[in-house]
Every structure is written in C-alpha cells, then in structure tokens.
Write a structure and sequence with these properties.
- The relative contact order is 0.13.
- Strands 24-23-25-29-30-32 form a six-stranded mixed β-sheet, sandwiched between helices. Strands 1, 2, 7, 13 and 14 form a five-stranded antiparallel β-sheet that branches. The chain has a four-stranded antiparallel β-sheet with strand order 5-6-12-11, covered by helices on one side.
- The protein is α/β, with parallel strands linked by helices and 578 residues long.
- It folds into three domains: 6-168, Immunoglobulin-like; 180-307, Rossmann fold; 343-526, Rossmann fold (3-Layer(aba) Sandwich), CATH 3.40.50.1460.
- A hairpin with a 5-residue loop joins strand 9 and strand 10 (112-113).
- The two termini are 26 Å apart.
- Residues 1-24 and 109-118 have low confidence and may be disordered.
- The chain contains eleven helices and 32 strands.
- 21% of the residues lie in helices and 31% in strands.
Length: 578
C-alpha cells in the first residue's frame, strides 16, 4: 500500500504503486513528495514522533523512526540509478530523549535480543530486488524516505523530496513449457509421477526430475559447489528455459538438502532455509549465490562480522514434503489427490484460531493477549469464514478442544504461541507458568480424513526439518495427520510487544513473525491468491516491502531477514485452495 501523503509531479504517466511499468528501453521518472508535519508527543518521559500514515522502523535499543515507502515494479533485469534531492530541512525542539524500541522476544522461550549501537538511517534509501508478481518475473525498486532524524534536544524534519529514477529495461523473455518441477530422489519418482499426472489432468504442466538427473547434468549443465547449489542452479535454469513457477522438494534433508544459513540473532548461530531455493535471481537477474563474499558460509548476517547481501525475495514458489521414504511419499500424494477430489462442504468454511497469552508484557505498561490479537487479525482478513476461537480468554483453549476441532474439519487453522519441533503450546491469561497445547504424540487422535486443513503454526521450530524425528509441521501432513499443508519456522521466531510507535496497533501484528503469519491469510482473503505457493511467496514479498532489510548494519535487520528465511511451507505449492 502506498503510504505517501502527497504526489505532486510525475514526468511520465505512473500507474498505481504495485503495477508493472512498461516503458521503452531508456526512461527517466521524476516524482516529488511532500510529507506531513510530524506530531511530537511525550510518553513516560520520552519523546515520540508520530506522522500520519507512516510506517516505523523498530530496532531494539534504537529510536523508533517514522518512514514512508514507495515500491516501483519494473521489467525484470532492468538497470536502475536513483538520486534524491532533500529540501525543507528544519529543526524542531524537543524535551527528553527519543523513545527506543524494546527487545524482541522469541516464541521458543525467554530469549531476549537487543543492541544499543548502530547507525541512524539517512534521509532516504533504496534497494533493488528481483521477484515474481502475477506469474511474471519483475524487478522491485523499493524507496524508503526517513523525513525525521533525531538530534540532541531536537529532531530534524525534511518536508520535501524530489526523486529521480533512470532505468534501462533488460529484455527478459518468459517461457511456459512447465508450471511446476518436482525434485526428489530416484526412489520417489513412482509416487511423484502419480502426482504429476494428477496435476497435468488439472492443467498444471508438471515435470518430475530426480536428484540423479540434476547432479549428472541430464537437463542442464551441473554447476554448483555442493548438492544444494547444484539444485539451485537447476531451478534457475528451469525458470529461464521452462518457465516454471512452482518447485516441490520431496524428501527430508538427508535426501534433499536444505541450506544452512548464518544469520545470527544472538541465540542461534545458524538454521535451515528453503527460501534459498526460491531466491534464484539477484536484482540484476544473475544467480543469487547467498554467498556474496565467497567464504563458504551462506546467508551471513552478523556472523563473525561478515554478511552476504541478498534480496531474499522469492522468484519461484517453493515448498517441501520432507518424506523420509517412498511409502510416506506414496501416502502423502494419495492424501493430496483425495483433497483435490473432495467437495468442499461447510467444514471448509471454518477457520479455527488457537491462541493465548504469549508474553508477560506488564513491565512495559501493556496487557496484550498477544496470540489472540494476532489470530484476530488473521480472522479479519478472512471474510466469509466462520471463526472458531479457541482462546484462553474465552475458556475454550484446551487440548481436547483443539483435537476435536481438527476432527470436525476446517479450511484453515492458525496456531499462535510457542513451539518446539515436537509440540506447540501457549499460556492462559496472566498465567505464564502453565502451558496448554498439543504435541506430535496427540496427533493420532485427529480423525478428519477428507477434511484436512491448511495450518499456520506460529511458534519457534515448528517446521524444523533436519531433526532425527519428524517435526510438528510435517507430522500433521502425514497420512494420519490433520493437515494438507503447514507453514512454520525452522528456527526461533521473533515477536514484538508494546506499541512503541504509538499508532494504536500492537507491535505484535506489525513486526516479525506475528506480522508475517497474518500476511499469509491476507494473501488469500484480501489479495485472492489461492494457491499455497503464491500465498507463501506473496506474503514474504509484502513483508519485505514493508520491513526494510537494507544490509547496512549487521545487527539491526537480522530478525527481519531471519523471519522470512526460516519460514517454511510444507505441502504442494501448486495446490489450489478453494
């Protein structure tokens, strides 16, 4: 959404933000922005700066800074230069120090993370990214304006910006030989050929490719330093030569590797990321290695002072079925085919939300029931669905009720709380020593054959593939589980409490995992993305549009990078949900 208050001059006709610009090869765009006067408020002895319709940079230990963004959608592989003239800078006197952001909390325990050193943002910044929009590859130019700078006893305010963009289009050609590629061990190909034939019958052109085919270079030259990079190079070639939009990885990490990423949040030095396979292009259309400093560590951020600069936008929709053997693969395919063939009755229109009081926020002067706030936001996006609320505040949150609502059947389920790779749980209101939830041991009690749900699991490690035992998210997908697909985290997931920007919306739904999880439902209920892969990919894209990951300080953006990198979709990305 365009948050800028006034657009005064445009030298070329500009469609609304988010539309694809289809100009001739060399173009110049000039745009003038005038920002509203900031409101200076005092809260608990600290100064808050509020601006109408602004977003806010929330970095623990740093002043909360308003910003506005503009997203331009350009032809893929465009070459872009940006300049900005800032005018009308003046000083506004204040009393007291700037309000700073509280630490983030993880959904896996009591870890806190904060950092009190860093650089203030400049007056504006811009970044380029490659991505996918409406089935076509594009470039995003994201411009962030920071009209307020904090000083000692004052703030500086810039009211006028003149932005000039020069770009040359790249001439990329889209292909359409296949819609989806399924990548799996050779022993799984029989089961996956069943799924491919099923998808073909629905008009989704699908090709099954074994790992042996990739490693031996059967279709494309086998580039890559290790097996994960060979798979990623294959995906890039398949996008360019075949036009694929969906990639299904089938197999656990011992068979189909994930990428170990070194984005250090102060608690975990590394974690696994399948987004690595989705972000195949850098902003210039070249291969995105995730190892831009070529030291053999991928996705570095705050890793021994090193960082790799990536755009982390998905260029293709990637999901995984972490099946451990061919029997599991066969039964999961049967479950998917049965779901497609089942008429969606009244059960599908049920949206079950499961949540409680995630954090003790009393020290900050707030009394939020974070999980219920988050799931209520998801319900808000899903108009037309019957909300079944298993909430601590309503007295409906029990293990037995969770299992019975699974058995009843639902189109969607949203858990929000704490997790591990074997369980999910949360707290009753104000009772932070009591846990209520379910574990993988409870799942045999779910009896919803033919009525499985798409399940969002908000909490740490609920999608942690690569463990000895199957994780919570995958256990739900198996033959006797209650889900057709799940979304979870391979690592710690982070949440923000309080309302440090003073805009009236709790930070739990404006930042980090609480924000990203609700965007998944926004893509379905508001933006009408009805395939799993598009819901996942478009949610990440919207998150990154609004949460600046600018790679300018290794401490300050790490949780935003980690939030999207560890967010894993398990299921068939081409699955149509309607």
């Amino acid at each position: 959404m365009d948050r800028i208050m006034a657009v005064c001059v445009v030298t070329l006709f500009l469609m609304s933000t988010g539309s694809i610009l289809t100009f001739s090869k060399e173009e110049t765009l000039t745009e003038i922005f005038v920002f509203p006067e900031p409101e200076i408020k005092e809260k608990n002895g600290y100064v808050q700066v509020l601006m109408e319709n602004a977003s806010y940079v929330r970095r623990p230990g740093m002043p909360v800074i308003p910003f506005y963004k503009k997203v331009y959608v350009l032809p893929f592989a465009s070459r872009v230069s940006v300049s900005c003239d800032v005018r009308g800078v003046r000083e506004i006197e204040t009393t007291g120090n700037a309000a700073t952001a509280h630490p983030f909390f993880s959904y896996g325990g009591t870890h806190e993370w904060s950092h009190d050193n860093g650089k203030e943002p400049v007056w504006y910044s811009h970044r380029m990214a490659a991505g996918i929009k409406d089935g076509r590859h594009v470039n995003y130019l994201i411009v962030n304006f920071y009209p307020v700078q904090y000083g000692e006893g004052n703030v500086l305010f810039a009211s006028n910006y003149t932005l000039k963009i020069r770009y040359t289009t790249g001439g990329y050609t889209e292909h359409d030989a296949y819609d989806m590629v399924i990548i799996c061990p050779w022993t799984y190909t029989f089961a996956m050929n069943r799924l491919a034939a099923h998808r073909e019958s629905q008009g989704v052109s699908t090709k099954v490719v074994s790992l042996f085919d990739i490693y031996s270079g059967r279709y494309f030259e086998g580039n890559g330093r290790d097996n994960a990079e060979k798979i990623k190079y294959f995906i890039k070639n398949a996008v360019e030569e075949w036009g694929i939009q969906h990639v299904l990885l089938v197999g656990d990490t011992m068979r189909v590797p994930s990428r170990t990423v070194y984005a250090y949040d102060g608690s975990e030095p590394s974690f696994l990321s399948d987004l690595y396979y989705a972000d195949v292009f850098d902003a210039e259309g070249a291969f995105s290695s995730w190892d831009t400093n070529s030291n053999g560590y991928f996705g570095e951020y705050n890793h021994s002072g090193n960082k790799d600069v990536m755009d982390i936008y998905p260029d293709v929709y990637v999901a995984r079925l972490p099946c451990r053997n061919m029997i599991e693969a066969f039964f999961v395919v049967s479950k998917i085919m049965r779901y497609d063939a089942t008429e969606k009755g009244e059960w599908f229109n049920r949206f079950v939300v499961v949540a409680g009081d995630s954090f003790n926020d009393s020290s900050w002067g707030t009394d939020y029931i974070e999980g219920e706030i988050t799931t209520a936001k998801s319900v808000e996006y899903m108009a037309g669905f019957e909300a079944v609320k298993l909430w601590a505040s309503l007295g409906t949150l029990t293990k037995e009720r969770i299992l019975s609502e699974f058995t009843e059947g639902a189109g969607f389920i949203h858990f929000d709380g704490h997790g591990s790779y074997l369980s999910w749980a949360t707290h009753p209101v104000h009772d932070y020593h009591t846990w209520v939830g379910i574990s993988v041991q409870d799942m045999p009690a779910i009896k919803n054959t033919g009525r499985p749900a798409v399940v969002m699991i908000g909490g740490c490690h609920t999608g942690q593939i690569g463990m000895l035992y199957e994780c919570f998210g995958y256990r739900l997908i198996r033959k006797s589980g209650g889900a057709i697909a799940t979304v979870g985290y391979t690592s710690l997931s982070w949440g923000a409490d309080d309302d440090v920007n003073g805009n009236g919306d709790p930070d739990i739904i404006e930042y980090a995992s609480g924000y990203l999880n609700t965007l998944f439902f926004k893509q379905y209920g508001v933006n009408h993305a009805h395939t799993l892969g598009q819901m996942w990919g478009d949610a990440i894209t919207e998150y990154l549009h609004n949460s600046p990951v600018e790679w300018n300080d290794a401490f300050l953006d790490v949780w935003d990078a980690k939030t999207v990198e560890s967010w894993i979709l398990m299921g068939d990305p081409s699955l149509l949900i309607e």
